[in-house]
Structures are given as structure tokens and as C-alpha cells.
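To: structure subgroup
Subject: Chain for Friday's discussion

All,

I'm putting the inputs and outputs inline so they're searchable in the archive.
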Amino acid sequence: MCFDSFEQERFDAFEFIVLIPLPTRSMLFMISAHDSIAMYLAIEPQSLCFYVIAASKRKSEFSTEAGSKYLILGAFSSGILLFGYDRTTTDIY
């Protein structure tokens, strides 16, 4: 990581030092997943860190909006992945 760009953008480096290794570990866990639940449990910590990184500029209105939109879309996709899509209820006979 380039700490010079952190200083220019005035990011708190501590947040990124904590938030970058967690998705990396999650990706490694995702590689070793043998079933769907393990894959889901590997994707969730990764996405939570990316939500925080997307909304990392606290004073920026665009960053807050991006983080909230990313969280809402992630919640929808996570719900569909977790609960599935039942095609039999939507068919008209």
C-alpha cells in the first residue's frame, strides 16, 4: 500500500491496515471452501470490509451514498444467495 496517497487523501491508515488483511483471509477461505455454506461464510466478511472501504471518506457525501447503496445491494444479493429463488411459486399453470 502507498502511505503517501493516504496522507494526501487524509485517510486513517489504521482502518485500512485492519480492513485489507480480513478480505485477503476471506479470499483464502473461499478458495478452500468445499460447500455452499462455507462459500457464503467466506464472501460475507469480504463484502463487509468492502462496504466500510467504500464509505471511508466520512466528510464526503458521495462516499456515504456509495457505501449505503453498496450495503443495500449487498443485502439483497446476500438474501437471494442465502434464501434462494423458488421458481415453482412463480410459474403460472
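Points worth raising on Friday:
Residues 3 and 28 are 25 Å apart (CA to CA).
The chain has a mean pLDDT of 78.

D.
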